[in-house]
Automatic annotation (TrEMBL):
Pfam families: GH97_C (PF14509), GH97_N (PF14508), Glyco_hydro_97 (PF10566). The keyword Repressor does not apply. This is Glycoside hydrolase family 97 protein. The lineage of its organism: Bacteria, Pseudomonadati, Bacteroidota, Cytophagia, Cytophagales. One of its GO terms (molecular function) is carbohydrate binding. The keyword Hydrolase applies. Keywords: Calcium, Glycosidase, Hydrolase.
Amino acid sequence: MFLCIGLSLFAQTKVTLKSPDGTLVYELRFVAQKPLYRVIYKGKVLVDDSGLSLDFKDGDRFGAGLKILRPVFSTVDDTYELPVGKAKTVRDVHRQALIPLVESGEKARRVNLIVRAFDDGLAMRYEFPTQENWKEYSLIDENTWFNVAGNPRIISLHFDNYVSSHEGLYQKFLLSELPEKKLMDMPALIEFPGKIYMAITEASLRDYAGMYLTKVNGRLKSQLSPLPGQQDVKVKAVLPHRTPWRVMLVSDRIGALIESNMLTSLNEPTEIKDLSWLKPGKTSFHWWNGDVVPDTTFSPGVNFETNKYYIDFCARNNIEYHSVIGYGGVPWYPTNGPGFGDPGTYSDVTKTIPSLDMQQICDYAKQKGVGIHVWVHWRALYPQLEAAFSQFEKWGIKGMMVDFMDRDDQEMVKIQEEILSRAAAHKLFIQFHGSFKPTGLSRTYPNEFTREGTLNYENNKWLEAGISPEHDLDIAFTRLLAGASDYHLGGFRAVKPEQFKTHYVRPFMIGTRCHMLAMYVVLESYLQMLADFPAAYEGQPGFDFLRKIPTTWDETRVLNAELGETITIARRRGKEWYVGTLNNSKARSLKIKLDFLSEGNHMAEVYSDAADAVENPNNLTRKTQQVKNGETLEVHLASGGGQVLRIVGM
């Protein structure tokens, strides 16, 4: 909503906004007609005086010689439903200040600074209302500064340029040691002394450039991804327009950052009227395991028999979807590109290669109660978007993985939203790969089931050291704060770290079998993969847990969380609770309080690292026991271990 504000000057030069519980304070003041803001949590300054300005084309800056008009304050206490998410019902409670800023002099341009204060964080954005003397803009820089107080530790990803799949190993620096002018991906987690945590990210990224952080002269500053083909212009817009929300999640309990629904609350409700077709679930993904098929009579390839093998597996085991990808680097659709990563000069995703009949596959899968989704390169899909989606709907395809996007400039951001919007019109879900972080847009487009943007288990096919349990925990405490993450879960061949080697076919895993099971609880994704091959699962310990676990939730609670050490998350679906604990490479014991359970007796299925899990990491124990509210379970975790519980009322 864009508001026109009357030009009545505000006598004061300071605006204060407090969270509903009063613990979080945003202060905006003017020094020499320039705005500066501060963030204070429980009396401690987390972000000291930080500037706000906008640089437009031809040396034109908005940020000096400003006057503040009378702010408009409001309070919201609302409840909304999420068709897919970590919670079904979300209560949105916040206070808002709409602060109109106007330039002195002839231009007299107006920009509204909107600030929202929640109990678990702050958000701010610019709105550009319709006005007579300003019709459009070309933005060179959005100078949103974060003058982080003291010398806290920062955990983040670092990149050299804007062309990226947003995958990497997290680095940990004190602010004073953080390299200057490197691109830092978001969310970035900041740990202050005394265990106060702040994560910086963005919400509602629409028709705008993706944002990074960079350190300049000892302070953090926003850095936007430029439009393709040049480096100067980041955003082109016609008024009215608005920026994404600049979000600071804040708490002295790190689990509260994971539980937070701020990002979806900062997005618009969905306008999709009929959501009855929307069915989150689990999926096969045979590319990860190396396209493994049994030693049988049919020839493996891009054909019906190869896909039937995986469809039958899905049908037997409560796996909702099968992925049609291709085989051996050959996509399922005609293309003159040399492989999956290059669509060449010709691709047509409305057709299949001669060896494949998509209608036959979709019809067979439907008979078996399995949905089909397909892999596509975005540059093969986008030029024929409507024709492709019409054909997919006609075939009976339910969704798709759109891959190799590798950009977050304004053009790509708009492309992604167009894909989501037009896919929804054809009752198709989307899974973005090679893509930037989520920004809560799954509230507006609940057909976005998941996205990548993580260095995940696909890298065990080629990364010499493999993905470590420590990296899994880094993901939980950083990338997970933004939302759903497709992590290529399900590898069932765990080895000791010193035995790990890269295997493109049948990849190995580091971390125990129970650690893998726990990843399905800890990591949020509405389309979790079972990426290994059927014979790797059936008859194996722990597979029964994966057959049962859902992928979208009614409630999420973080029970234990020690940054870089361990995490326990409980998620409820209906009357069932699933509890997952991840450990790093140091064996330990910890206690899980069951105070989240309802009254009465419950039955718990408990999957734990076996006593010999250090030597045999695929070994686990399974037992059932009665539990009730108020009890405490003691958990013994192996190096790289984990534990999961499935708890149902009796």
